[in-house]
Design a protein that fits this description.
The chain has about 190 residues and is an alpha/beta fold. The chain has helices at about 20-35, 50-55, 70-80, 85-90, 100-105, 125-135, 150-165, and strands at about 40-45, 60-65, 90-95, 115, 145-150, 165-175, 185-190. It is globular.
């Protein structure tokens, strides 16, 4: 598949933004390679929707969520720049924490073909991680796309995911800040 669409992203001073957008675009290109066309996608910790908006041309639906109200406003502005075809593929942006979304969806969380998480450095919150590690997947295959900016938490949580039956399909790292010891990690798990 091709690299990201020309999505115009909006940010305010109260929203998180990658400092190295060109580097993060490489991660987006890799994510796109692991998204099957027509997938139904749930994105938790969406921020302004950078990942969800940039895969909207590939999937049937993307449901994004984050708890920062400024992120939802930026997402709405970005959504308005998409073609009508892409807009219809995005279900909604839910202004809610990942925990709240997982509570609301319960086992319907696993009705999505792909679950994307891009949590803060501390990693996936405990409630979401417990749900991902549960045996509630039914007979459907689910792919987990885990973007991590905190390698210490990723190392622990990926071990828990593997112990719960997730299979690691891809692992990549990007140095977005040359000269620093920070690595952005992308892991693809299937279950």
């Amino acid at each position: 598949s091709s690299c990201p669409t020309n999505v115009t992203l909006f940010f305010t001073p109260s929203t998180f933004r990658q400092a190295n957008l060109a580097g993060f675009e490489q991660i987006l290109c890799c994510i796109r390679e692991w998204i099957d066309p027509g997938s139904k996608v749930l994105e938790l910790y969406s921020g302004v929707g950078t990942i969800g908006l940039n895969i909207s041309d590939l999937v049937s639906t993307v449901a994004c969520s984050d708890e920062n109200p400024a992120n939802a406003v930026c997402f709405g502005h970005s959504l308005n720049t998409l073609s009508e075809t892409h807009k219809t593929r995005v279900l909604a942006y839910e202004l809610a924490s990942a925990e709240t979304v997982v509570d609301r969806l319960d086992d319907d969380m696993f009705s999505h073909d792909v679950i994307i998480v891009d949590p803060p450095r501390k990693g996936i919150c405990e409630k979401v991680l417990r749900k991902l590690c549960s045996n509630s997947t039914g007979s459907t295959r689910t792919r987990l796309v885990y973007v991590s900016c905190g390698f210490k938490s990723f190392r622990v949580q990926s071990g828990q995911l593997l112990a719960a039956g997730w299979e690691l399909r891809h692992l990549g790292g990007w140095v977005l800040f040359p000269g620093a010891d920070h690595v952005e990690t992308l892991a693809i798990f299937d279950r």
